[in-house]
Amino acid sequence: MTTDFVISVAYQALYTLIIVAAPLLIAGLLVGLGVGIFQAATSIHEMTLTFIPKILAVAGALVVFLPWMLRMLLGFTIKLYTMISTIAH
If you count DSSP H runs as helices and E runs as strands, how many of each does the chain have, helices first? Predict the structure, then answer.
C-alpha cells in the first residue's frame, strides 16, 4: 500500500462526500437566500423565520435525492470492498 494509493482513496472519499452532500446544502442555501431577500425587502428581522423553510427544503431534497445518494454511497462502498484484496497483498 503506497502513499499514492492512500491519497487516491482519500480523494475518492472526499469527492463522494461532497457530491452526496451537495444537493442538501444547495437546497438549504437557496431557501436561506430567498428568505433573506424576503426579510430584507419587508424589513422583517425575525431570526426564527429561516429555520422552518430551510428544514422543509432540506427534507424535500432528502426525499428527492435519497435514492441517488444511496447509489453513490453504495458504489463507493463496493469500490472499497473490491480494493481490500489489493490492500492485503
Answer: 2, 0
Asked if the model's pLDDT at residue 1 lies above 80, the reply is: no
**How many domains does the chain contain in total?**
1
User: Does pLDDT of 89 surpass 70?
Assistant: no
Domain housing 16: 3-88
DSSP calls for 2-51: -HHHHHHHHHHHHHHHHHHHHHHHHHHHHHHHHHHHHHHHHT---GGGGH
Is the model's pTM score more than 0.70?
A: yes
